[in-house]
Amino acid sequence: MNRFRDINDIQDYLPIYFKAWWLDLVFGRARWEYIIELAVDGYITAILPYSIKRKFTFRVITMNSETHYSGPFIIKDKDRKNDSLVSYENKVIESVLNKLPSVDFVYFQCLPNTNSYLSFLWSNYTINISYTYKLDLILGKDVLLNEMKGSVRTDIKKCIIDGLNVGFCNDAQDFMVFLKESFDNNKKDLPYNLMNLNSIVETSLLNNSSFIRVCKNKNDEIVAAAFVIFDHDVAYYFAGTNNVIKYGSAALSYCLWESIQYAKSIGKKSFDFEGSDIKGIEHYFRNFGGTLVPIYRVFKARNKFMRLLAYIQNPKLFG
């Protein structure tokens, strides 16, 4: 088990969405805080980053829209037996939740690595479930390929036969220009805030926490791109697309496959597609053969009006 006494020492071990530089980026400096849970020996057992926002006259704690996971992060003792681990998680989460400031509304989309969410129920939170797909990068390349749907393997082979190649892009602006152009050409609404995404791309590259893979045709034109962020153990597919005018959808599959292989080569243990509730996107991610993993969305409203307002404002509850 990793053991830390100081929040600065733990930064390299934290999931990317819990790191101080990420929270500074999405919330602004001095506009967020950590709740830190300590064991009796002074070592950190859990942290919970949060930021209080104003919605009308209400105080709310919610996630930034560019942050996909939040809630309590628990430093686990892997030597514990399952019943002891569940008891430990329940106790730690309950303690952390009790330290949250009194607000009108709270919402987190929790990391998919917690065994028990009973403490949220005991603390009167409501739980909704979404899903993501995760690839186990401990598996060999051939195993990962075989787990894919045959059509994805066919797409990858087609791209190779057609002379496409996948390389790196270190220029955030080039990626942003391609992204906007491609969504315009594909006649689809851009699902990203370009200003915010540009800041994330630039800052994460500076912090050695991301990479951009681009797929080019024989004319050296970018036909697909994938932006992937990562932390100590996990790589997360954050943004990307293909340009159907220059090449078909197979190019994105090839780009993602090369991204998965690169994440594996730099020691990441899993690749998280970060899920989607949109049927077509869910189906596309599923074709890569990952394991279906539940994501727990937890929220707590002070009253029925706040609950109703949350649903009216945003499907992801003020996210």
Explain this structure.
With 319 residues, the protein is an alpha+beta fold. It is 34% helix and 26% strand. The protein has 10 helices and 13 strands. The strands form 2 sheets. A 10-stranded mixed sheet has the order 3-4-6-13-7-12-11-10-9-8, with helices on both faces. A 3-stranded antiparallel sheet has the order 1-2-5, covered by helices on one side. A hairpin with a 5-residue loop joins strand 1 and strand 2. Helix 5 (150-161) crosses helix 8 (250-265) and helix 6 (172-185) packs antiparallel against helix 7 (194-206). The longest helix has 17 residues, at 82-98. It is globular, with a radius of gyration of 21 Å. 38% of the residues are buried. The model has no long low-confidence stretch (mean pLDDT 90).
Q: Helix-strand pattern, N to C?
A: HEEEEEHEHEHHEHHEEEHEHEH
- Beta-strand percentage range: 25-35%
C-alpha Rg, in Å?
21 Å
Number of helices: 10
**Computed structural class:** alpha+beta
Please state the overall shape, judged from the principal axes of the Cα atoms: globular
Distance between the termini: 33 Å
Number of strands: 13
Low-pLDDT windows of residues: none
Q: Level of helix content?
A: 25-40%
Mean of residue pLDDT values: 90
Which features would summarize this protein structure in a list?
alpha+beta; single chain; 319 residues; 34% helix
Give a nutshell description of this structure.
With 319 residues, the chain is of the alpha+beta class. The protein has ten helices and 13 strands. A hairpin with a 5-residue loop joins strand 9 and strand 10 (222-230).
